[in-house]
Amino acid sequence: MDQAREEILSYEKSEKPLARGEREALLRNPGWGRVFTDHMVTIRYKEGRGWHDGKIRARTDVRLEPGSMVFHYSQEIFEGLKAYRMPDGGAALFRPDANARRFRNSAERMAMAPLPESMFLASVREIVSVDREWIPSAEGAALYLRPFMIATEVALGTKPSAEYLYCVVASPVGSYFKGGAAAVTLWISENYTRAARGGTGAAKCGGNYAASLAAQAEGAREGCDQVVFLDAVERKWVEELGGMNVFFIFDDGTLQTPPLTGTILPGVTRDSLITLGHDLGLTVREQPYAIDEWQADATSGRLREAFACGTAAVITPIGKVKGKSRAFSIGDAEPGQLTQRLKTALTDIQFGRAPDPHGWRNRLF
Ligand SMILES: *Cc1c(COP(=O)(O)O)cnc(C)c1O
Hints:
The structure is a single chain. The chain is 27% helix and 29% strand. It is an alpha+beta fold. It has two domains: 3-173, D-amino Acid Aminotransferase, Chain A, domain 1; 184-350, D-amino Acid Aminotransferase, subunit A, domain 2 (D-amino Acid Aminotransferase, Chain A, domain 2). The strands form two sheets. Strands 1, 2, 3, 4, 5, 6, 7, 8 and 18 form a nine-stranded mixed beta sheet that branches. Strands 9, 10, 11, 12, 13, 14, 15, 16 and 17 form a nine-stranded mixed beta sheet that branches. α4 (96-109) packs across α5. The chain binds pyridoxal-5'-phosphate. Pyridoxal-5'-phosphate (PLP) binds at residues 80, 204, 240, 243-245, 265, 267-270, 310-311.
């Protein structure tokens, strides 16, 4: 690690870190994604030169020429992962290697320079290490890490940028939804789709989010918390939420989630829950599920529970689903028992409260 630090990142520690009292006040109620730590990581890329000028430095503005390509053609990708406070006061990341790999895959899809996984890992480990006082210790809280990369070549021609800026910022976070662990209501997006075969649905790029916001706003007008997207071809198969994967639990103890066909973001949480489902003795299916089946099964009681999952919101039970011409509830619209068991299994590993049989914890200190 020290060697990686020397080779990849030079240190310019902040001369003005936030005073302890102010930091602790912010950590008591950080909200979600509004508070940032003292430092950031930046690494630059230039064609012919490769990755260079890696730094851990005081967090500051990023200055860009207005002609920088990211402003015009949106070559931008990001990641999201958390550093968790361990019971002994140390800290660990959860499967950061999976984020490093996905970041590479996203870069390739967007024709951007792939960041070597070793650099990604060094960057996230180092920012947590230098800003370790910012890892909250309240129940369920964590230090959210946001690595991202933008096209910085100054040019208006449409071609892949020859220059990139990779950055990592860190933000202490509490619960994603204001209601905490209460069940959410979903709006079925019928006017908008999120991703089509051959598109960018499996890449973690900002453009996917930009494209989902009109649907999200429509859902909010309908009194819903989140949007659920259907496939773009048949407008029938449940895909995922704007930023979370979706799971279904049936009365025979089967756990089901839509398969990864290129239009769904391959969530690390999704992948982990498939493994934990097997560990808990559930039958796990990666199989398409139609919106009509969902309604019929929820009404008949064959479907017992449904939940959304992702790093940010962890596991969020789905209580109700609404669309232009339908509305139904799942179970008694309360968080289900198996949903809760899966959440406990996952978060006990993430927070170091349980053994780590799959080697998912990446201990930092
Ligand atoms: C990030 C993301 C997810 C969840 O992925 P995790 O790795 O579990 O955090 C799901 N869907 C979309 C669209 C995402 O961007």
